[in-house]
Amino acid sequence: MINVKTFFERPSVFYISAAISLLIGLVGFITLEWSHVIYSLSMVLNLLGLDVSLTQLAEMMPESFSYEIFALEKVFVPVFFVFFGISLWAGFKRFKLWILVAYSAFNIGLFVFAFFATGYIAFHSQHYSAEFVTVDEFLQSDFKDQQIGTAFTARNRAMVLEINGDARAYPISYITQTHIAGGEKVGGQDVVMTFCGLSHLSVPYENEVNGQKLDLKVMGQFHNNLVMFDRETHEPIHQVKGKMVFSGAPLKELPSVMMDLDAFAKLYPQGKVYYRAPEDRHIIDTMVFWLMEYAMGEQYDESTEELAFDTSPFYDKRLGAKERIYAIVKDGKSTVFTKEFIAEKSNGYYELNLDGQIVAIKYFEEFDYIDMFTGGNAREINHLGGLPDGTKLEKFRHSNQILWRVYQYFYPDSTIYM
């Protein structure tokens, strides 16, 4: 019969159990934070004066493998704590207290950073807790005083979702950190807005899949685009692809546009604005908020091709790396428009025949934004889709102002109108 006390006094018990618990954290950290590790290493090399691109290394980690590791989180958690507990027990009389404390801090820190820090600490989504204020309340807030990094490059832009005349604005500066904001119905529909600061892509979704409510959290990013996961099913969702990774279930995307907040206030005086008061953020929120502000300043700076997280190859240079394009994807085929083509070369209006379906693309010059509608003969259409004869066209879902360098990675064979 094994003597428990003697068994745990064996040095091998500590080293084996410690190695297993550390290995779990290390595997999670490498697979789920690989691109961030490569980016951090690139920064160090650049600070040392070495102009070295590690993009190819960042692309070496297969998405599918990372998703599989993430899916095993519920297995890893109990296994980690079992072997971590055994290692502490086995090492209690073998090592000094400060050594065990240091070991515990490193081991738990690595594990938490790998599996929990991104979705539950650093980027604390507000899927069901977002606060919205009236336009008047927002204009009286301290929003402009909070702008640092994105004030000059995002120009107070916001994603705008309008349904049945009811509108919500989601300022980039607020949603860049949380990535996900919901909690209020818009036009009677239960919706959630998602935003990826790295790709400048906003995608609102209906808040359910196959009759089940979504509960979205941030998993990380691949190829400079947001990867979320549903807390209920634990399935990853790559934002630009819009479907669950394992089941393949699609999320229903809704039309939205990007415009300045001043334009939103004029077009939708009865609308509401997503707002995050400084006093409602804990200390980690505040630190990440300012960090993201500075990072997005680099991401949206059109004077350079480099991204804040320069981990995606730039293959297609028909357009500038950071040009914000308008894109339609149908049956896997991508059609891209530049603002110059719509606003100037097409005199503010263009009709696209999309396999027999007419899409009206309109530049609203007074408010400096572009929207798309299903149907033709719509040059005089208003921001709600209304025509002078009283008919109304539905808005057409498209990617609005996504960065070309990010988009071209996913759709390298796009047809471009420029």
Account of the 3D structure:
By secondary structure, the chain is of the alpha+beta class. It has 3 domains: 4-122, no CATH class; 132-299, no CATH class; 324-417, no CATH class. It has 13 helices and 21 strands. It has helices at 4-8, 11-32, 34-47, 55-58, 63-71, 73-91, 97-122, 135-139, 172-178, 261-267, 283-299, 339-345, 404-410; strands at 132-134, 157-163, 166-171, 180-186, 189-196, 201-206, 208-209, 212-213, 216-222, 225-230, 236-238, 243-244, 257-260, 272-274, 324-330, 333-337, 349-354, 357-364, 369-374, 399-403, 415-417. The strands form 6 sheets. It has a 5-stranded mixed sheet with strand order 1-14-3-2-13. A hairpin with a 2-residue loop joins strand 9 (216-222) and strand 10 (225-230).
Concise summary:
It contains 13 helices and 21 strands. It has 418 residues and is of the alpha+beta class.
Overall geometry comes to elongated
Cα separation of the termini: 79 Å
Total DSSP E strands: 21
**Segments where pLDDT lies below 50 for 5+ residues?**
none
In round numbers, the mean pLDDT is 90
Please state the structural category. alpha+beta
What does the largest sheet look like?
A: 5 strands, mixed
Number of domains: 3
Number of helices: 13
Radius of gyration from CA coordinates: 24 Å
Q: What helical percentage do the residues reach?
A: 25-40%
Q: What are the SSEs and their pairings?
A:
Layout: H1 4-8, H2 11-32, H3 34-47, H4 55-58, H5 63-71, H6 73-91, H7 97-122, E1 132-134, H8 135-139, E2 157-163, E3 166-171, H9 172-178, E4 180-186, E5 189-196, E6 201-206, E7 208-209, E8 212-213, E9 216-222, E10 225-230, E11 236-238, E12 243-244, E13 257-260, H10 261-267, E14 272-274, H11 283-299, E15 324-330, E16 333-337, H12 339-345, E17 349-354, E18 357-364, E19 369-374, E20 399-403, H13 404-410, E21 415-417
Parallel strand pairs: 3-14, 16-21
Antiparallel strand pairs: 1-14, 2-3, 2-13, 4-5, 5-6, 7-8, 9-10, 10-11, 11-12, 15-16, 15-20, 17-18, 18-19
Helix pairs in contact: 2-5, 2-6, 2-7, 6-7, 9-11
